[in-house]
Structure formats: C-alpha cells, structure tokens
Specification:
Helices cover about 35% and strands about 15% of the residues. It is of the alpha+beta class. The chain has a 9-stranded mixed sheet with strand order 4-3-2-1-5-9-8-7-6, sandwiched between helices. The N and C termini lie far apart (about 50 Å).
Length: about 230
C-alpha cells in the first residue's frame, strides 16, 4: 500500500544544492533585518529548488538559524525537511511559485512601503525603477496574514508585476534569484520613501513618468549591468 502524503516524514539531512539554497535564504533574511526592512522575525524569505521550497521558519530570529534549522516544503505545502514550523506566510510563497516562474520570494514589513499601502491603491510611477517591477506597483486588498485569502489578493496584485504592496501589511517581491528579489525589495522601499517625501511638500504635486517612458526604461534596464 502506498504511504499517504500526510504521513511522510521530513528528511533528516540537507543535500546539495539544498544546502546552498538554505545558506542563501538565511543570508537574505539577515539582510532584511540589517537594512531595516523588517523588525525581529516579521518578514520571511524563500527559495525554490526544483519542486522543493526552502523557507524561513516561524518566529525564529534569523541570527540563530544554521544548517540544522533548514525548513523545506513541497509545492503542496507538505514539509519534507526539518522539524521547525514553516513561516505562517507559507500560502503566499507557494502561490507565487505556482503562478509565476519565480525562484525566490522576499516578504517584508518595510516602513515606507507599509505606509504607502495604507494611502493608495497603486504606487505611482515616481521613478524609472518602477519599470524594474513591471510597472506601477499595485496594493493587494487587505486580508488576514497567513491566509489563502491574502495569497489570492497578492496574486491578483502581482499580475504582470514582480512586486506588490499588501494593504496595511508590507511587501512581496519575487525574482529569478534571492539577490534579485532582495534588490527589488530595497528599490520598492526606496521608491515608496521618495513618493512619501514628494507628496509631503505643501502646494506641490509630484511629476510622474508616463507609460511610454516607463517602457523605454524597461527596455534599457533589460541590458543593465555586466554581460553574463
């Protein structure tokens, strides 16, 4: 008789390349706290390796995480590695991997981005880096954290985008690598700070970048950096 998925036991050891991916997950999670994008353990980070998703555990300070603390699930959310409980925001991470070609996800409670999420339905195109996220960043409808409802709202806001804001909550950004997802997260927080600063000037209205210029910026950004 075939053993049911619900009785499968977590694998006891990390194997390569899961070990490398876990190291990157922990490093990125620590960067979110070091750069002030989260407070304590309020954010979460994940990376996909094939059909396995390595994700930060719930409620564990990132500076305490080591190789023995690795947590992984399959795309159905069944735990396949580790004994620590996965982040409560696992539904959001899995939804991204099911609906996009992302290999990494970073979720934060960044201050300026969270503030913007309470004010507008979309972050206006205040800077050309808006193009790096696919266009003006939408705000997902509010839903309780850790729920399928929040994951569904997030996916709608991420349509044709690599990042979104979560109403009264924070940010979700994905990328082909953890470095890319983190960089996009930092850029989103910076753009939110710029927009909040600009709209705070009495009697002045910020200029915005029109759609045709955003498309030109997107084309140019696609060749940014060093070859290869």
């Amino acid at each position: 008789m075939t053993r049911s998925r619900s009785t499968r036991q977590p694998q006891p050891r990390l194997t390569h390349p899961l070990r490398q991916a876990w190291t990157q997950v922990v490093r990125t999670a620590r960067r979110t706290t070091a750069d002030g994008l989260v407070v304590g353990t309020s954010g979460n980070v994940s990376a996909r390796v094939g059909d396995t998703v390595l994700v930060t555990p719930s409620g564990v300070p990132y500076d305490r995480l080591g190789p023995r603390d690795a947590v992984a699930v399959d795309l159905d959310g069944q735990q396949v590695l580790g004994t620590l409980k996965p982040t409560s925001e696992l539904p959001m991470h899995l939804a991204v991997y099911r609906e996009t070609d992302a290999e990494a996800v970073v979720h934060t409670h960044a201050v300026h981005a969270t503030a913007v999420s309470t004010l507008v339905d979309e972050l206006p195109a205040i800077h050309y880096m808006t193009a790096a996220l696919g266009g003006p960043v939408r705000v997902a409808a509010y839903a309780l954290y850790g729920t399928d409802e929040l994951a569904d709202a997030m996916i709608e806001a991420l349509r044709d985008r690599s990042g979104c804001l979560l109403r009264n909550h924070g940010t979700v950004v994905h990328g082909a690598t953890l470095d890319q997802a983190f960089d996009r997260t930092a850029q989103l927080e910076w753009m939110c700070r710029v927009w909040l600063t600009a709209v705070s000037v009495p009697g002045r209205t910020p200029t915005l970048i029109p759609p045709d210029e955003l498309r030109r910026a997107a084309d140019k950004l696609s060749g940014y950096g060093q070859p290869g």
